[in-house]
Amino acid sequence: MAQLIDGKVISKQIKDELKEKVAELKENGTEICLAVIQVGNDTASSVYVGNKKKACEYIGIKSLAYELPEETTEAELLNLIDKLNHDDAVNGILVQLPVPEHIDEDKIIKAISPLKDVDGFHPMSVGALSIGQPGFVSCTPAGVIQLLKRSGIEIAGKECVVIGRSNIVGKPMSMLLLRENGTVTICHSRTKNLKEVCRRADILVVAVGKPKMIDASYVKEGAVVIDVGIHRDENNKLCGDVDFASVEPIAGAITPVPGGVGPMTIAMLMNNCVESINIR
């Protein structure tokens, strides 16, 4: 039986630690403030934004909510970001993605000051990560590292395979594993002999975007399997990129979906908000 890596428990530990830190900062006269911008009313985005507000409330971070109509122009959104960039009371700015099609997502990401980029998506944040400089780290990959460390899983010297090369998960994930002295292979849609490469992994991080694609035939016995995917299956139940029922009996440790990586993303966003006072 695989060790179940419980993201709910670990994210609660992190949030409780942050709550204490924030209380101390408040005693010393420092309040942390996160501005969350949502354009349009995409249902999934509204759920995420709601969860972020709840986490802020729990930890003691002030949150400003900007819920803008779908027809908001790119110029209006850029003006709001510019205003928040220059507001010293705001520590972090988050634009909930995706934005409506008439707005250039790349332009919006670049408009947020790297000093307030708590999502870790700005090219300067990504560049800082790649050369080991201080900066904000993309929340999901940072959460995966915390899941491994807090579950007593050694990364140094291990064969780490990441499936997926997105800017939000795959690429930063590989750099973080490298920073922890893992030996890293990145796989993608053009990788030849994907199963063979995956079966070398001591730590397999799956961010492929296809429901239940990774079954037991991809996994070495005793490997640690981290499932970043989230989907609805044919019965409308949440599932990941990993076929949990097939992989769990042979894995050494595995994250469930839901309740694995998901809760960690918001915990690490909160961590980035608190860290913002050190990045200025």
Any overview of this molecule?
The protein is of the alpha/beta class and 280 residues long. It has 2 domains: 32-116, Rossmann fold; 139-262, NAD(P)-binding Rossmann-like Domain (Rossmann fold, 3-Layer(aba) Sandwich), CATH 3.40.50.720. Helix content is 41%, strand content 16%. It is built from 10 helices and 11 strands. The protein has helices at residues 7-27, 43-59, 74-85, 105-111, 123-130, 139-150, 170-179, 194-198, 244-247, 262-279; strands at 3-4, 33-39, 62-68, 92-95, 159-163, 183-187, 203-206, 224-227, 231-232, 238-239, 253-254. Strands 1-11-8-7-5-6 form a 6-stranded parallel β-sheet. A 3-stranded parallel β-sheet has the order 3-2-4, with helices on both faces. Strand 2 (33-39), helix 2 and strand 3 (62-68) form a beta-alpha-beta unit. Helix 2 (43-59) crosses helix 10 (262-279) and helix 6 (139-150) packs across helix 7 (170-179). It is globular.
Keywords:
280 residues, alpha/beta, Rossmann fold, 2 domains, 3-stranded parallel β-sheet, 10 helices, globular
